[in-house]
Design a protein that fits this description.
The chain is α+β, with helices and mostly antiparallel strands. It is built from three helices and seven strands. Helix 1 runs antiparallel to helix 3.
Length: 135
């Protein structure tokens, strides 16, 4: 066991997260998402809607995000999302992602809807961030 800190980097166009405590990895994921997409807010819920990582400014959107995630029916083998306009320049993007910890629901407030390619990249990055550390 070492005391070295985890870090992240880029390989090609993908964000790579090195192993570390889950909440640290999710915080790095959130920071990268905000930096690369201009997200105005990011929160992560478990499938029941309990916050794993909160953004206090958008706590009122948790119920909506959970409801949208529960109604979402994914296409096999593809990342997917649901979005709803919540303001003149704001869209709530909801991206359910299956991880080793169960389904995590990413809620992010964006200036405009995400492209399918961006959703796939974000889902892969969240799945990687949530991947347990190797023993």
């Amino acid at each position: 066991m070492g005391t070295s800190r985890s870090s992240h980097g880029r390989v090609g166009n993908s964000i790579v997260f090195h192993r570390g405590p889950l909440l640290e990895r999710l915080a790095r994921f959130r920071d990268q998402l905000i930096r690369h997409t201009g997200a105005q807010g990011v929160f992560i819920l478990d499938r029941e809607g309990k916050p794993v990582m909160e953004d206090p400014a958008f706590g009122k959107l948790h119920f909506l995000a959970r409801s949208l995630a529960q109604a979402y029916r994914p296409v096999a083998g593809q990342a997917g999302n649901v979005h709803v306009k919540i303001g003149s320049n704001a869209v709530l993007e909801v991206v359910p992602v299956d991880t080793p910890f169960g389904c995590l629901v990413l809620g992010t407030v964006m200036p405009r809807p995400l492209t399918a390619a961006a959703v796939a990249e974000i889902a892969a990055a969240l799945r990687q961030a949530a991947k347990p550390r190797e023993a």
